[in-house]
């Protein structure tokens, strides 16, 4: 970890982001207004779902909201669990559990996953549900963690039980941070009436820790232009190199090649014309193969440069040299000509897109705080889930630890009023 910090402060510090090591400031007008409005509404909320990004369970905390949430019934929803390393995620759940904090990992696009969250909310609200005619559940969190996607999923689930006459109101969901700019309410149950409030994503006015800022940018909670795509890509490369990730990719692709050698998979065929975006059609096989091939090329480019590099990745200058070589390798893998304008920006953009789509693998960028407690058997990852090396990865065959995504048995739903 130390080396990443050093690289950020010295090597990458000269390149635009936080010249002189200053904080990340992204606090547009709507966010300042929303922060005030959220504070006011929180006083009225019966329950708060604090959505965080599973890839950065701590860095996606809004520290300024914490004192206001402390006195509330609340739970932390670690969303986008499909993008987070399933070997590490259970450790985070246990971390929050040991802090007496209700926490669940979810995928806001999955009704199955969101139903489990609703079961827990219902359990926590059991006593209030029986006496209050109206309840307010607020969904808060930093930008782009999936608050609106979660609300839409809750709404879809509730519509199965309380069919709505008029066209169902939907929260706007989008890949960039700052999509929701106003607080909006969605009714999800009658008797008692339960309203869920979608809120704009809010950050603290200033993020003093460089690495926290970079993690938020890498996962899309801070606008790319605030930090700079190139810098974010460099940060991710530094993380991957310091974890030895390229070696994992090498093993993975060597195995793939072996399989192809055995004739189990031929070369992929695709027509570039068919790959042009078409929002109406789901991607066909050729588009899927195309992305798979690009991913393989990117991983091989990074692992080749990593293997050939004879410097020391613990040395910040060597790490910078390696990242420089990897940028050149990436440019070739993405087939971007040297002469292209803004060549490095294009490389960075494509690399970030693959990372954010989870195509490079599932990662958790934060480290579980070391509480000094001994590791119990329960903490050990089952053999089937062991990564190829100690690299923090999941191979395709790695299924998440069974049951750990489930609400514990004690959290049985009490009634089905919310659902
Ligand atoms: N892979 C994955 N993507 C998700 C998940 N939940 C949401 N997303 C995507 O994340 C992006 C942001 O989702 P939103 O629901 O708009 O996020 P938000 O927190 O409301 O964002 P703001 O309104 O900007 O604060 C969208 O592209 C969603 O499709 C999830 O569980 N997994
Ligand atoms: Mg939103």
Major sheet: order of its strands?
3-2-1-4-6-5
Main sheet properties: 6 strands, mixed
Percentage of residues in DSSP E strands: 5-15%
CATH topology of the largest domain: Rossmann fold
Number of strands: 6
Give the helix level as a range of percent: 40-55%
CATH homologous superfamily assignment of the largest domain: P-loop containing nucleotide triphosphate hydrolases
* Bound small molecules, deduplicated: guanosine-5'-triphosphate, magnesium ion
Number of domains: 2
- What order do the helices and strands follow? HHEHEHEHHEHEEHHHHHHH
Q: Provide the gyration radius in Å.
A: 23 Å
Number of helices: 14
Average of per-residue pLDDT values = 83
End-to-end distance, in Å?
44 Å
Broad shape = globular
Parts with pLDDT < 50 across at least 5 consecutive residues: 10-20, 375-419
CATH architecture of the largest domain: 3-Layer(aba) Sandwich
| Sheet/helix structural class | alpha/beta
CATH class descriptor of the largest domain: Alpha Beta
């Amino acid at each position: 970890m130390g080396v990443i910090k050093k690289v950020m402060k010295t090597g990458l510090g000269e390149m635009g982001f936080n010249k002189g090591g200053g904080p990340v400031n992204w606090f547009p007008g709507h966010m300042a207004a929303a922060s005030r409005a959220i504070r006011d509404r929180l006083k009225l909320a019966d329950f708060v779902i604090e959505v965080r990004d599973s890839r950065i369970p701590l860095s996606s905390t809004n520290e300024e909201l914490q004192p206001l949430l402390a006195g509330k019934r609340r739970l932390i929803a670690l969303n986008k669990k499909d993008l987070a390393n399933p070997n590490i995620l259970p450790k985070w759940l246990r971390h929050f559990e040991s802090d007496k904090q209700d926490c669940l990992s979810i995928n806001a696009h999955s009704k199955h996953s969101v139903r489990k969250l609703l079961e827990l909310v219902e359990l926590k609200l059991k006593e209030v549900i029986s006496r209050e005619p109206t309840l307010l559940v607020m969904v808060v969190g930093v930008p782009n963690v999936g608050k609106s996607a979660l609300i839409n999923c809750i709404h879809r689930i509730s519509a199965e039980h309380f069919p709505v006459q008029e066209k169902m109101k939907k929260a706007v969901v989008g890949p960039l941070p700052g999509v929701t700019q106003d607080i909006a309410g969605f009714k999800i149950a009658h008797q008692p009436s339960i309203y869920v409030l979608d809120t704009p994503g809010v950050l603290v006015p200033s993020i003093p820790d460089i690495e926290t800022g970079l993690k938020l940018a890498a996962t899309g909670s801070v606008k790319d232009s605030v930090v700079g795509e190139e810098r974010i890509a460099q940060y991710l490369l530094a993380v991957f190199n310091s974890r030895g990730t390229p070696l994992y990719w090498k093993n993975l692709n060597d195995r793939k090649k072996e399989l192809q050698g055995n004739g189990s998979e031929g070369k992929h065929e695709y027509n570039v014309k068919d790959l042009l975006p078409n929002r109406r059609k789901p991607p066909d096989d050729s588009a899927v193969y195309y992305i798979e091939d690009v991913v393989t090329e990117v991983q091989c480019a990074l692992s080749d440069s990593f293997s050939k590099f004879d410097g020391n990745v613990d040395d910040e200058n060597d790490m910078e040299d390696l990242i420089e070589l990897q940028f050149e390798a990436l440019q070739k893998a993405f087939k971007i000509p040297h002469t292209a304008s803004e060549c490095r920006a294009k490389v960075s953009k494509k690399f970030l897109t693959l990372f954010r789509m989870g195509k490079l693998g599932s990662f958790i960028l934060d480290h579980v705080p070391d509480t000094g407690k001994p590791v119990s058997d329960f903490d050990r990852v089952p053999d089937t889930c062991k990564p190829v090396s100690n690299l923090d990865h999941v191979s395709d065959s790695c299924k998440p630890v069974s049951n750990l995504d489930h609400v514990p048995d004690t959290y049985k739903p009490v009634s089905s009023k919310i659902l």
